[in-house]
């Protein structure tokens, strides 16, 4: 018996609607489209086929909630939750046994708990595997740039969020110098105390994003910001940034203006089998986001239970998703930056540019 799941998508920007309805982009102004989105029902998007591990097969469905991040944060939460419940009911009618939450659908309603209480099928945010793959990708990128994590200055931006907290816990196992960056000093202090108890790392805390990033050799960004918060002037030469956030935390201007830093996408995973999503969500064939992969692996395992919910899930759950991924054949899909794969030659160029800029800055400081 194969596994059966559904996954909720939503447009990160009004322009994303064109992926499903190209004619709208040509005929309806973006601000008009966003204005009517709150009145639109959930949209069946596609049937996902071909997922096959050594142990089982799975099929699923993409269901779109027609709300941008700006609307999800701006509308009353009960209105947004009703939209998510309607989408969850569609998943139930389709026969799905577990529902995964993508991007801001995983934030609303107590990080998935309220939606899980309202539905008869299991729910997961996918945040356990998202955190695991983000830290793994950061390690791969640091190796490629010649950075030893145990000696690096590390930062987690959005550290007090659900993914940020676990990312910090995982990263603290590999670094000695860690800064937790967020907006709430009390929450940052509580997380720093937890890290000290659990890992022995005495993390610094900061509410100053720029000051924290300009000294960081490696960073994970996983805020819930609507717009980019990391800009070219925020990064030191040779820095590695793993951007897990959707929408992205790192501005595209970084790629255009800083050829001496490495920005990678976190949480990009290769799916086992000959998967066909029957929908273009911006990744190459057979690749998906880690939150999607967590939903798929639970369906392959036929673990139809509420899984990663709320903001304080355990490291044991994260480690379990790593084991399930290994069992079923999911793996981190190399290094990608702004929606394209990076070659070894490109990374080598970035590394060489960083060394030249560091030398130039050192010479200027000594003159």
Pick out its properties.
single chain, 367 residues, alpha/beta, Rossmann fold, six-stranded mixed beta sheet, six-stranded parallel beta sheet, 17 strands, 41% helix
Helix content: 40-55%
The main pleated sheet reads as: 6 strands, mixed
Class of secondary structure makeup: alpha/beta
Q: What proportion of the residues form beta strands (DSSP E)?
A: 15-25%
The separation of the N and C termini measures 71 Å
What is the gyration radius calculated from CA atoms?
Answer: 20 Å
Q: Widest sheet: strand order?
A: 5-4-1-3-2-13
What's the pLDDT, averaged over the residues? 92
Annotation, overall tally of beta strands: 17
Secondary structure tally, helices: 14
> Shape from CA axes?
globular
């Amino acid at each position: 018996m194969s596994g059966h799941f559904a996954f909720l998508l939503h447009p990160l920007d009004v322009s994303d609607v064109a992926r499903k309805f190209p004619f709208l982009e040509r005929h309806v102004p973006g601000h008009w489209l966003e204005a009517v989105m709150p009145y639109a029902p959930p949209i069946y998007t596609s049937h996902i086929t071909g997922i096959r591990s050594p142990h089982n097969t799975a099929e699923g469905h993409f269901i779109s909630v027609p709300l941008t991040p700006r609307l999800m944060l701006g509308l009353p939460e009960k209105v947004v939750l009703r939209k998510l419940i309607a989408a969850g009911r569609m998943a139930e009618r389709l026969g799905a046994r577990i529902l995964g939450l993508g991007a801001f659908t995983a934030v609303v309603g107590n990080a998935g708990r309220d939606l899980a209480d309202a539905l008869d099928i299991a729910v997961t945010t996918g945040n356990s595997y998202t955190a695991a793959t983000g830290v793994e990708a950061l390690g791969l990128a640091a190796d490629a740039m010649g950075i030893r994590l145990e000696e690096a200055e590390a930062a987690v931006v959005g550290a007090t969020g659900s993914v940020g907290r676990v990312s910090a816990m995982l990263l603290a196992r590999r670094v000695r110098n860690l800064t937790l960056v967020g907006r709430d000093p009390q929450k940052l202090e509580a997380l720093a105390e937890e890290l000290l108890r659990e890992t022995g790392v005495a993390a610094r805390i900061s509410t100053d994003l720029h000051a924290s990033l300009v000294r960081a050799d490696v960073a994970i960004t996983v805020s819930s910001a609507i717009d980019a918060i990391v800009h070219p002037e925020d990064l030191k030469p040779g820095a590695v940034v793993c951007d897990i956030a959707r929408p992205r935390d790192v501005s595209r201007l970084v790629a255009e203006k800083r050829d001496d830093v490495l920005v990678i996408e976190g949480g990009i995973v290769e799916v086992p089998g000959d998967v066909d999503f029957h929908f273009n969500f911006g990744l190459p064939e057979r690749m998906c986001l880690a939150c999607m992969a967590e939903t798929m692996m639970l369906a392959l395992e036929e673990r139809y239970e509420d899984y990663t919910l709320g903001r304080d899930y355990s490291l044991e759950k994260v480690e379990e998703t790593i084991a399930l991924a290994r069992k079923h054949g999911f793996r981190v899909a190399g290094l990608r930056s702004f929606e394209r794969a990076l070659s070894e030659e490109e990374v080598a160029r970035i590394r060489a540019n960083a060394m030249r800029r560091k030398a130039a800055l050192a010479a200027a400081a000594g003159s």
